[in-house]
Structures are given as C-alpha cells and as structure tokens.
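Researcher: Quick test of sequence recovery. Tokens follow.
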C-alpha cells in the first residue's frame, strides 16, 4: 500500500540529515521528536540505533498519522562501547584518542512510518572508518576547526576529515548521518521516490 501524496516528515534535528535527505529531491519538512533517546554505552549498537530511530519515527507519526515519517539515529562503536555525542570537549578528546590509529564501525538505523496505513519499515546500515594515528596537536587543531559536541564519536568525516580519517568502507553518507542509498530504496518502495 502506498500513499505517495502524503507529506514526508523527517523526525530529526540534525542539519546533516536535512542536507542529505534534500539531495534525494523529495519534498519534506522537519519535526523534531520530543523523546529521550537510549544512550547506553554498553548496548548493542545495531539495536540501539534501530530503537532510537523507531522511537523518533513513532513519536512523530502518532501526532501526524496521515504523513510518512522518517526517523534515523547514528552512533560510533569501538571496543564494545557505543560512542554517542560527547558531553564536552574533554570527552570529545577522549573519544578521538580511542579511535586513533584504528578502525571503528558507524551504525545508522532507519525507521519509516505511516500510521494510518500501518506501514513500518526498519533498516540498518554499517560502515567502517579507519583513523590515522593522532597526536595532541592534531586533536587540538581539529577541535579548533570543528564543533564536535553534536556528533557521534566526537568527529565529522565531512568536516576536515582528512586530518583524522585514513579511509572508509561502505556508505559515506551513512558515516555523515543518513545512508542515502538505503533511504532512497525505502522511499521508492512506498512511492515517494523514483
């Protein structure tokens, strides 16, 4: 069942997700979900992002049952620990040191909802990022250039990423915060994208 004329709402405050979704050429509006996300560091990262994406999408879909609602959540995972958004610069530095000279996973959960149509689509994406070996000077320079407190893992690959990142595998847009291929696929399935 498709409802291509129903509006699309992005249930996210992330400017990066807004920019990425805009690249698909599908009209949408933003409505931030008023929910408390699960940020447990010892949680399974795939389950964590899936739960948070669904939480956001379900909350906004309950208010707008006639609309398509897209929720997404992204986190970084290394050493069996979830690295969400750092609380302060000291925690951002600590995260960057934890990622230095090694690889880590970036997980994003996607949840598309249409309450009236009883449509629930959930997907998950993983990418790998390989960091250079960092120094105090590199970390300080990076933090002077990039506001990292709203970014999982304390970094943004699209903002001076060359200082930190050696290479990546998988979806770059996933690492930024919204995997475009998978997002386009689910929007196409319901008739919102072609």
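Model:
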């Amino acid at each position: 069942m498709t409802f291509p004329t129903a509006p699309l709402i992005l249930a996210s405050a992330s400017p990066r997700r807004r920019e990425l979704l805009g690249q698909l050429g599908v009209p949408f509006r933003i409505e931030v979900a008023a929910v408390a996300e699960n940020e447990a560091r010892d949680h399974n990262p795939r389950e964590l992002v899936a739960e948070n994406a669904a939480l956001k999408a379900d909350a906004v879909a309950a208010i707008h049952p006639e609309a398509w609602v897209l929720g997404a959540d992204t986190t970084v995972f290394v050493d069996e620990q979830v690295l969400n958004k750092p609380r302060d610069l000291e925690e951002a530095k600590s995260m960057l040191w934890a990622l230095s000279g090694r690889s880590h996973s970036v997980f994003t959960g996607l949840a598309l909802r249409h309450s009236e149509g009883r449509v629930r689509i959930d997907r998950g994406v993983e990418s790998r990022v390989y960091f250079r070996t960092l120094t105090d000077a590199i970390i300080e320079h990076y933090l002077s250039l990039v506001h990292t407190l709203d970014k999982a893992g304390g970094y943004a690959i699209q903002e001076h990423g060359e200082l930190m990142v050696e290479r990546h595998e998988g979806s770059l847009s996933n690492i930024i915060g919204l995997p475009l291929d998978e997002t386009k696929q689910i929007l196409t399935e319901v008739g919102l994208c072609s």
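The domain at 8-189 is CATH 3.90.950.10 (Maf protein).
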